[in-house]
Amino acid sequence: RREPLALINVKKKNEETGEEELASRLDHCKAKATRHIFLIRHSQYNLDGRADKDRTLTPLGREQAELTGHRLASLGLKFDQIIHSSMTRATETTEIISKHLPGVKKISTDLLREGAPIEPDPPVSHWKPEAVQYYEDGARIEAAFRNFIHRADAKQEEDSYEIFVCHANVIRYIVCRALQFPPEGWLRMSLNNGSITHLVIRPNGRVALRTLGDTGFMPPDKITRT
């Protein structure tokens, strides 16, 4: 719903200079900037924690977050913001990453919390959440996609660089939706802890995937997927 024609009332055009005025209004509604979306999976965390507050990062997970933060800083980009899941492991990963990006504001959201986005196809035997979970989590994760993954606003003059720290299921679903692939295939991708996935959204709405789950900046003995 960010196509210029969807942003204006076509019926309200001047009778005498209709086409010319319409073209001017369409041009005013066209996006001019490119958005760069960096989707970061949280680092390794304590799987034995019963509640979310107990699922804190492991010592290795903290190392991974440091490496990811260093990698993002080394890109030399002017990041606009870090939006992160409100879950403990994502919040802690964000805090460590942000040390390498001083001055970049942080925003917490429940929309990016981990969950079951949609029933995978083909199904898997090792992971079978209750059907109701797909309805509850799926609606929320789809809302996250629609809220965060879109072309730049027409008022945005310069390209933007935004970081989203969240979870594997959320990232995989977003990638499928952004590339217009069947979202049921989300579970066919695998993402390492602390990995970087880079999406580019052009002013015309076209999306390109530059990297998926990159951890090439980590030593092999620091890479995990738990």
TrEMBL record:
SUPFAM superfamilies: Phosphoglycerate mutase-like. One of its GO terms (molecular function) is protein serine/threonine phosphatase activity. Keywords: Hydrolase, Membrane, Mitochondrion, Mitochondrion outer membrane, Necrosis. It is found in: Mitochondrion outer membrane. InterPro entries: His_Pase_superF_clade-1, His_PPase_superfam, Mito_Ser/Thr_phosphatase. One of its GO terms (cellular component) is mitochondrial outer membrane. Its EC number is 3.1.3.16. It is an enzyme of class 3 (hydrolase). It catalyses: O-phospho-L-seryl-[protein] + H2O = L-seryl-[protein] + phosphate; O-phospho-L-threonyl-[protein] + H2O = L-threonyl-[protein] + phosphate. One of its GO terms (biological process) is programmed cell death. This is Serine/threonine-protein phosphatase PGAM5, mitochondrial. The keyword Hydrolase applies. Belongs to the phosphoglycerate mutase family. BPG-dependent PGAM subfamily. Gene3D superfamilies: Phosphoglycerate mutase-like. The keyword Hydrolase applies.
